[in-house]
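Cysteine protease structure dump, as promised
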Amino acid sequence: MDAMFDICYLTPDGNNVEPDDIPKTKDNVWILGKKYSAIQDLDRIRRDISSIIWCTYRKGFVPIGDEGLTSDKGWGCMLRCGQMVLGVALVRVHLSSDWVWTPETRDPTYLKIVQRFEERKQAPYSIHQVALMGACEGKEVGQWFGPNTVAQVLKKLVVYDKWSSLVIHVALDNTVVKEDILKQCIVNNDRGDTSDCPDKLVVPDWMPLLLIVPLRLGLSEINPVYLDGIKTCFELPQSIGVIGGKPNQALYLIGCVGDEVIYLDPHTTQRSGLVENKMTDEQKEMDCTYHCKYASRIPMLYMDPSVAVCFLCRTKSDFNELCLTIETKLMKESQPLFEICDKRPAHWGPSTNDIDLQNTTLFAEFEEVDRQFDDSDDEFEIL
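structure tokens r here:
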């Protein structure tokens, strides 16, 4: 199976030559809130990176939209980055932050997670569902998303997938409001109905939180004053990366070393297929395509200034710790990335985050929604 993973793995230049993914340096390497030594922990770094669910362009899937698109090459990279963030969140909630994938992995919970991102309309977070839900944010199928758009789409989709047991909060105006998050995440067990919970378990007091903070860190290029704040975000144990990239090219930024960011690149076009129960050789090979053996890196100053930093708080204690760190570290920077406050500013008006989970219908009810497609190159990422 290791040989199969080597075969399935595709480097950016199409060969199997080991890339210079992690520099030989004494600087700490930070990946999704964990600290590593670039010299002593190289194998562990690569093992943990390959355990991330890697979402890339796909081809040959069921057509989307009026134009019948069967590939997202050229327009789906930001959607794929959103899928990767959500994949990390689901693995940490339903498995653990130390969970490790191998080509032999057939854990049923893992398979349930990866199946949620397959290219089929019934999958809660398939390219079909993400693209069609984008219409609610004013993006037609085939149009390029920004970090905030994909965050808003994921926030809507997760409501329809009760198994995920996850709340997504998207911060507004560079401000994290504790009051709004607590209203979303603290669950009253007295509300009764647990029929949609796995195995009729009692609803937890705290719903795990995926916090996404969209930011603009410059006009046409990133302002160097924000670099220390970005590094701090990668170091927090709640970090699950940054949705960002280079100008006109979305990347999933998973960590940093020195003044460089480490990322997974969705710009590899792979065939569409199903992992299912991972019994056949074809299914095993397909599972390998959801994992990347090596990451890449670029200087932080090459980043596009439009980003969305992402944090996962599995417990209320995690959230309290994150809030304290934001207040004592991030907000002490000369130019803070964002702010945190207890209550909503008066001029904001009522919250739109209070979605009634008891009254939502299953995602299947909107999977057949058809959208218009505007074939405009201006909205596309041209590679």
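The chain is about 25% helix and 20% strand.
lmk if u need the other ones
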